[in-house]
Amino acid sequence: MNFTLGGRLLRGLAAAPLLTAAACGVHVEEAMDVVLARHVHTDLYDAYPGIPSPAGDRVVFADYAADGRSLTVYDVATGAVLATTKAPAGRSRVTWSPDGSRVVYVDRWSESHGVWTLDPATGRESRIVDPGDARIDYPRLLPDGTVTALQYAGADTAWVAYAPGPGHASVLVDRAGGWTAPVRSPDGRSVAYLHAANEGAALAVTEIGTGETRTLAAGLRVGWDRRVEWSRTGAALHLAAAGVDDSLFAGWRVPLDGAPAERLARGGRDVLAVTPLADGRIALSVYHTRTAVGLVPVTGGEPADVTTASSTSAFLPSWHPAGGALGFITFSWRRVRMPVDFDLGVLDLDAEGAPAGTVRTLLSEEGEDYGAAWSPDGRWLAFHGHLERSDDIWLVRVGGSERPTRLTRFGPGADTGEPDWSPDGRALAFSSYGPPLEGNPGSVYTIAVDPAAGLAIGDPVRVPLDGFRGSAMGARFSPDGERLAFYGRSSEDGRVTVHTVPAAGGTPTAVISFANGEPYSAPEWSADGASLFYSRNDGFGPFQVWRADIVTGATEQVTTGALGALQPSVSPDGRTLAVTMREASIEVVALAAGGAGAEGE
Q1: Were both Cys, which of 146, 241, 447, 529 would link to 460 (CB 3.0–4.6 Å)?
Q2: 3-class secondary-structure state, position 521
Q3: 125 touches 69 (CB < 8 A)
Q4: How, if at all, do strands 50-52 and 158-162 pair?
């Protein structure tokens, strides 16, 4: 079925095989949808949905900050923040208690594993289920205080119930291997869940007493924050999913009586979660994201977007050594198909630094082409690549016809970062979590390069970081080539510190520390080597670029603007910063009463 409702395209979901389209020609008078809350998301790649309370008067968002997931609760009437968690923790699978008084979630960290609640009125967090040595996930708090969850034990995975107070779990379904996101029906007789089937996920319902199972839909693609919700009456299920040919996640209402499902799309945006409200409305968690490259004077201001004309997103800029062009990563962003095929784009600039022409392809190889870094003489391009199923640093002649040459051999899974050239063009610096299985949490490396032949001279050398404990991320040579700057993330509290260290290694010198745990690029030196540019958001709101004086540690904010900025790169003349401009937010939208997906009394 194909029909339009309030400007939204609604299509059908086949009862068993695949997400498909059907046609039905129903006209519904347009009504007003309401944005309940909007949250600026801090993580560049991952996005977690906002979940409204049953009454729709509050919304909780999970976000990534300080190496843990934080929670923020908004009041819908005022837009005010009611509570924000401060301590790092592995908070996930966020829902609400049936009466809407508490946020419910699982903490995945081993030292605090269990089911927890957050009271938005007081900000207090309390563990209500301690599973001991068992590992549990997908908790749901029932009206009587019972908590249902999946309990993992290899092939013996079960769906269990923890009664209020101390005690062991009782098994509800003992063959729950492969289940995700189980949730009990309003009458308590059935459980709905997702499970793997035919290279996709299937939506199924099992009667608890008899074990009878029905598959309502198959061939689904779902995100990592998987959830299924029952309607108030138990007549339908709601979820966010995509079909095989879809490029976006959509919301779905799937009736249990076999009637065609309704697709709840929202303005060409990904829908990350669907939540029925107590008044019969349906709330969609909608993901808004865009990245672009912008320019701003090093003295500060709001960056000016220079890649708007491109149809693809762009991020992680770098400068041509002559200053007449910008390189960056290009991709088309979709949650369904994560951008695993990054390409390197280039944009020429005129004498005034304005775009000259449109974005063109600099390098397009299989997998990730990441971090365009021109050699000082402009002859070579170093980049992180996944060619030949690697996770390594590669080198290719600019404008040549040769295939790229592999400089490192860490192999798959090393999570190698973008490279940076030494001022003399004879070495590259980068960070890597590899080689895998070596117990390396993240280190800084250099590798010698023959600038004439474009070949590595020897193997990568791990830079000694005496006394440093944690994960080293990113690496940038100072303008004189004597020192390296890198980020270090503490293994204790997740805080990030900007460090410098002699290029040959030694004891790192801390310059500045801040709360956010994912800066997404290396710190950048000023042209005179006296300060470092870095990006941070302190765990909340948009990223901005800051400058830190290396000697005094004094800081000042450089960029402004609602979009935020990160991944700074200084122009060769030292006057301009190229940055990644990023818009990323989650909106929770309540569809109009009586509209799509709504359920009557």
Answers
A1: 447
A2: coil
A3: no
A4: unpaired
Asked whether 363 and 344 are in contact (CB, 8 A), the reply is yes
515-519, Cβ contacts within 8 angstroms, sequence gap of 24 or more: 515/65, 515/66, 515/539, 516/42, 516/65, 516/66, 516/543, 517/64, 517/65, 517/66, 517/67, 517/68, 517/489, 518/42, 518/43, 518/44, 518/64, 519/473, 519/474, 519/487, 519/566
Token pair belonging to 25: 């020609």
Q: How far apart are CA 192 and CA 183, in angstroms?
A: 5
d(CA 516, CA 495): 6
Closest C-alpha among 332, 290, 297, 289 to residue 568: 297
Residue written as token pair 């041509």: 320
Closest by CA to 15, choosing from 232, 260, 325, 381, is 260
DSSP 221: B
CB contact at 8 A, 227 and 272:
no
Q: What is the distance between the alpha carbons of residues 62 and 286, in angstroms, rounded to a whole number?
A: 14
Residue 361: both structure tokens together: 């392809």
Residue-wise pLDDT tens digits, 165-174: 777 889 999 9
Tally the C-alpha atoms within 13 A of residue 368's C-alpha that lie toward its C-beta.
20
With a CB cutoff of 8 Å and minimum separation 6, the contacts of 352 are: none
d(C-alpha 132, C-alpha 160), whole Å: 14
* Token pair of 172 as six digits: 């509800």
Copy the structure tokens of residue 168: 């062991």
d(CA 25, CA 567): 49
Could you read off the pLDDT of 71-85 as tens digits, one per residue?
999 999 999 999 999
**How far apart (Å, rounded) are the C-alpha atoms in residues 522 and 238?**
42
Q: At 310, which amino acid appears?
A: S
Angle in degrees, CA 263, 266, 268, rounded to 5: 105
Quote the strand ranges of 12-146, DSSP E.
34-40, 50-52, 58-65, 68-75, 81-84, 91-96, 103-107, 114-118, 125-129, 135-141
Distance CA 231, CA 183 (A): 11
Structure tokens at 206: 């099992």
pLDDT band at 136 (very low <50, low <70, confident <90, very high): very high
What pLDDT is attached to residue 31? 55
Stretch 412-425: mean pLDDT, rounded? 92
pLDDT of residue 107: 95
DSSP calls for 442-507? -EEEEEEEETTTTEEEEEEEEPPBTT--EEEEEEEE-TTSSEEEEEEEETTT--EEEEEEETT-B-
Q: What value does the mean pLDDT take over residues 1-15?
A: 28
Query: What does 342-383 look like in DSSP terms, one character per residue?
Result: -EEEEEEB-TTS-B-S--EEEE--SS-EEEEEE-TTSSEEEE
pLDDT value at residue 23: 29
What DSSP string describes 396-416?
Answer: EETT--SPPEE-----TT---
Distance between alpha carbon 570 and the CA centroid of its chain, in Å? 26
Provide the pLDDT for residue 545: 95
Q: Say how far apart CA 464 and CA 519 lie, in whole Å.
A: 22
Average model confidence (pLDDT) for the chain? 86
This prediction has a pTM of 0.77
Tens digit of pLDDT for each residue in 357-377? 888 888 887 667 778 899 999
Cα–Cα distance for residue pair 321/148, rounded to 1 Å: 59
* Per-residue pLDDT tens digits for 189-216: 999 999 987 778 999 999 999 999 999 9
